[in-house]
Amino acid sequence: MPMPVPKAVSADMSQSQFERILGNAARLALIGIGFVVLLVSLQAGQVFLAPVMLAVVVGLMFGPVADRLEGWGVPPALSAGVVVLLLLSVIAGFAVIFAVPLSDWIARAPVIWEKLQQQIANLKEPLESLSSFQEQFSSVLGSDSAVSVTVEDGSAMTGMAMLAPAILAQVAIFLASLYFFVATRDHIRVSILSMCVTRRMRWRTAHIFREVEHKVSRFLLSVTMINLCVGTAVTLAMWAIGMPSPLLWGAMAAVLNYIPYVGQAVMITVLLMVGLGTETELFRILLPVICYASINFVEGQIFTPQFIGKTLTLNPFVIFLSITFWIWAWGPVGGLVAVPMLLIAQSVIAHVLPGKPVKPKRPVYRTRQMSDRDELLANAAQAVREQRLEEEAEPDKGQKRKEERLSPPAGTAPDGVDPAG
């Protein structure tokens, strides 16, 4: 005959359960406070952290170049200098490509603005109807004053003069960080590995370093080649349709393509504004946007999955959240480092918290029409189905598993003694 559970023991178990809830709530509160502090620190340290992180990402991209130079006997300090000079030459080349066409468009800006004003004048009637609706709405609310917007005219040169020192400081921090990171990346790796106290920790840390370098360098080099192809295709398309300065639009498409979603939206907006300012027919206005959107669609659906591969494919929603967060924290630089930071986080989490794959006892037979995602989902559903059948066949086993999940662990009573004892 089972002995009844004393009320004191039941009260102890309830108190123990309440203490565990309070402990979990305290841990969650600490995590939340730490996350808020991290957000504030990232935004407050933008001037220093953004160029340093960009230098690390670019250094990982040019790591294979430095490794090849060091393999030929070049000292690390000299190979890092070559990498910095190579990057500066690439930036200077793009600046030359942008300079001449951009100066032409700046000279044509008054004419384009006049045409844009003509296009906006066509919207006069809808705006007047909106103004009348505003007056009626104000009269209903009992206010005779209309909503007014005052734009304070400021000097653009004054703003640029105020921003110039900060921009120059960030550029200097970026170049110095890139040089020292490339020159001392092996020492950084050895120093971090020496702080690992166990052999397993050193093994995992070494694998994290290797996978991060491989993923980031492969991703950035592949994206660079794809973006150069996109820029070439956009240049040829703009030249074919008679768009002025096709080289400028091709270079802009190649640069903005480093920022997924946001870069494409900016490029479409720019082409649409240029079409509105230079053309009068609707088809001619939308033709540059249609050409660019078609090229971008082919690139995103065919070439990027083919060259980057399925191993570097990330969830689009996670990519969008990462881009949004880093742009909010660090501005345009955050948009450049968003996807590489996501790859770094993915590699670290995969090795620190390795997941156990879901494998059923009887795997699903893969057909020709099934993709890797379909096979993974089918096997996961099969594993859940097998577990449910096992619990239905052995109800005692399922009940025992549920009791193990709900029962308090040993030694969690208020007096430190296991309640079952």
From TrEMBL:
Residue stretches spanning the membrane: 21-42, 48-66, 78-100, 162-182, 219-241, 247-274, 312-329
Domain of life from the UniProt record: Bacteria
Pfam families referenced in this protein's UniProt entry, alphabetically: AI-2E_transport
Principal subcellular localization: membrane
Listed InterPro entries: AI-2E-like
Record localization: Membrane
Start-end of Basic and acidic residues biased regions: 385-406
Keyword Coiled coil in annotation: no
Family designation: Belongs to the autoinducer-2 exporter (AI-2E) (TC 2.A.86) family.
Protein name: AI-2E family transporter
Organism for this UniProt entry: Devosia rhizoryzae
